[in-house]
Amino acid sequence: MKPSLLCAQILGFQWVWLAWAWGVPRGMLWPGTLSSVLFLAAHRLWLSDRRSDLKAALICVWAGLLHDSVLMHWGWLGFEALNPSPLAAIQPWWMALLWACLGCTLHQSLGWLKGRIWLAAPVCSVAGVMSYQVADQLGALTLGPPWPTWLALGLFWGLFIPLAQSFPGGPASGPQGRMESGGAPP
Prior knowledge:
By secondary structure, the protein is mainly α. Helix content is 63%, strand content 5%. It has helices spanning 3-23, 30-46, 50-74, 93-103, 117-138, 146-166; strands at 77-79, 141-143, 172-173, 179-180.
């Protein structure tokens, strides 16, 4: 992948995350929605290996739905801007958009972690907890009791990203850094 596209994807995903984390507590869902749609469109235009990226996005959406909904049920996670009834007991729809955007990063900007579980597990554990903690501080969500919540988040993120990257069909980076579909790393 070209360094400029890699940088654009990293910055783009951070922008999407910030648009949701800043906008949701202010009752403004349009910045996150617009940012997510633009990020997904740009990803499809410039970076997409359509089959593997769709698979990664769907894996992330479903894993996020399960993860966040279970933590909500346990009282360890609460969201601003919940779904309307009867769907209020599950992860909000806007989080599904954020998880889909995350899925698009698994094989590109997070690709450097692929196959390096010794590095991916601690990096993703810490980054996952920090992401939820900062979103809590911004008011987009509310975390429950610190230690069990942090432990659950850290374990999930430390396992999820390496597992999601290991599913077959993900793109591998070729010798010149371009994306090749289905090949093995050199």
